[in-house]
Amino acid sequence: MEISSLKIFREVAQEGSFTKAAEKLHYVQSNVTMRIQLLERELGDRLFQRTKAGVILTPKGKILLEYADKIIFFSDEAQKALSASGDPQGALRIGSGETTSSIRLPSYIAKFHSKFPKVKLSIHPGNTGDLLQGLIKRELDGAFLYEDFSHPETVSRPIFTENLKVVTPKNFRTLKALTSSLDNLSILVFKPGCIFRNRLEQWLLSQKIGPRTVVELNSMDSILSCVTAGMGISLLPESILKSRKLDRFVSSFPIPKEFSLVRTFFVFRKDVSPTTALNEFKDGLFSSVS
Question: How far apart are the first and last CA of the chain?
Fold first, then answer.
C-alpha cells in the first residue's frame, strides 16, 4: 500500500468525485480511477459507492480513511524531522481565541517572526471547543485554550490569566443597580462553548437572576458596540477593556473570583514529535512567562 495511493484515496473521499480529485491533484482521471481500483484489489473490498452526485465512502472506505489520515500525517512528520536543519522553518499553525491573539500575543509573535523569519506562522481563530478539535484532527500544531477543556491526547501548560468583568451600558453606576434593572437588557454573548458565556450564566444563576433574552454575536467588537449602544450586558476580559480604552463608553464591575478568573493554556498533542519551529515557539513562550 503506497502513500501516494492513500493520498489519492483521501482526495477522492474529500471531494466526493474522481473528476474533482484528479483536477486538484493535477492527474488525468483515468490514473486516479486506476489507482483506486488497485487499492481496492489490494484490500479485497470496495472503498467507494457511486451516487448521482458522485461517490461516497463504503463502510470499509470510512475505516481506511481514518487510518490513511494518520499514515499520511506521520509520513509528513517523518520527512520534516529528517530534513530539519538548524534553523526552524516550514508551517506553524497556532489556534487562539480573540483576546489572546489581539492582546496577549502580538509582541511575542513579532519577536518570534523576527528571530525565525523562515517559519510560516499562521494564527487560526476559534473558541476552545473548535480549537481543541483542530488539535485532535492535527489541523493545528498548538493552541491557546481557556481552562474548560480536557482531552487525554494533549499536553498543556498555563500561560496567562484573564480577569473577567461584567460590562454594562455607561448609565449604570453600581452592580446593584444593574441587577435590579436587567429586565430591559439582553445578555450579549458568543456562541455556546465560550467560557465567557458560561461564566456569565453561572454568575447570573448565583445572583438568582432568571433567564434573559440572549443575543449571540461573533466578535468582541460587536459585543462591545452593542453594550455601548445600551442593548445589554456581557462578561469580558479586563485586558480588552483597558486596551480599547472604553471607560468613557461603558461601565465595568468586578465579580467573585470563582467566576472572574480564567486561565489560558498552551496545548499541543502528546503523540506528535514537535517540529523545530513548534519547539522554539513553546520554549520562547514558556520562558517569557516563567
Answer: 47
In angstroms, rounded to a whole number, what is the distance separating the alpha carbons of residues 169 and 239? 18
Q: What is the DSSP letter of 163?
A: E
Q: Which domain holds residue 210?
A: 162-261
Give how many domains the chain has, as a whole number.
3
pTM (two decimals): 0.71
Q: Give the pLDDT confidence of 123-161 residue by residue, as tens digits.
A: 999 888 889 999 988 889 999 999 878 788 899 999 999
Closest CA to 21 of 8, 6, 31, 36: 8
Q: Both 269 and 151 in a single domain?
A: yes
CA 225 to chain centre: 24
Sequence-distant (≥ 6) Cβ neighbours of residue 108 within 8 angstroms: 284, 285, 288
How many angstroms separate the CA atoms of 122 and 130, rounded? 16
Going 99 to 103 to 107 to 113, the CA torsion angle's sign is positive
pLDDT, position 84 = 57
Examine the domain organization and report whether 20 and 67 are in the same domain.
yes
Q: Which of 89, 71, 75, 77 is nearest to 9 (CA)?
A: 71
Answer yes or no: are the C-beta atoms of 155 and 273 closer than 8 Å: no
Selection from 211, 213, 215, 166 nearest residue 189 by Cα: 215
Question: Per residue in 219-260, pLDDT tens?
Answer: 899 999 999 999 999 999 999 999 888 888 999 999 999 999
222 phi/psi in degrees, rounded to 5: -65, -45
